[in-house]
Amino acid sequence: MGFPDQIVRTVELAHSPAKVWAAITTAEGLASWFGNTAEIDLRPGGDMRMTWKEGFAADMRVERVEEPTVFGYTWPINGLPDDDPRRTYVEFTLEPVGSGTRLTVTESGFAQLPADAHAEAFEGNVGGWKSELGELVEYLDAA
């Protein structure tokens, strides 16, 4: 039996695609809902770095930028050693819906992990996306 390879979350936002795009692709936006600090070179191959107050940091690589509809990056898998080359791929897809935006987040690449690492990384990120997308909604609604 194989492991689930991806997490998919969709949220309907009462904000324009341009506003959602800025929240997910700028250092200011990302630091307001996702991490505590952010740096981003918004081009395929560009570097991206997020840090959190808890002492965690993630170095990422921008993989896909199709403004204003698709943004994707790769990042380290939680629970693996810092020098492990395996990454998951996260893709945000924005679709205009009425006066708002349907945002779908897909994170894939979990099937490459052994059972123990898969359980920790997959379940951790399932909960993480639920929490982070809730923070995105709060950030957008407050702005």
UniProtKB/TrEMBL annotation:
Residues 15-140 form the Activator of Hsp90 ATPase homologue 1/2-like C-terminal domain. Pfam families: AHSA1 (PF08327). It comes from the Bacteria. InterPro entries: ASHA1/2-like_C, START-like_dom_sf. Coiled coil: none annotated. Belongs to the AHA1 family. This is SRPBCC domain-containing protein. It comes from Nocardia rhizosphaerae. The lineage of its organism: Bacteria, Bacillati, Actinomycetota, Actinomycetes, Mycobacteriales.
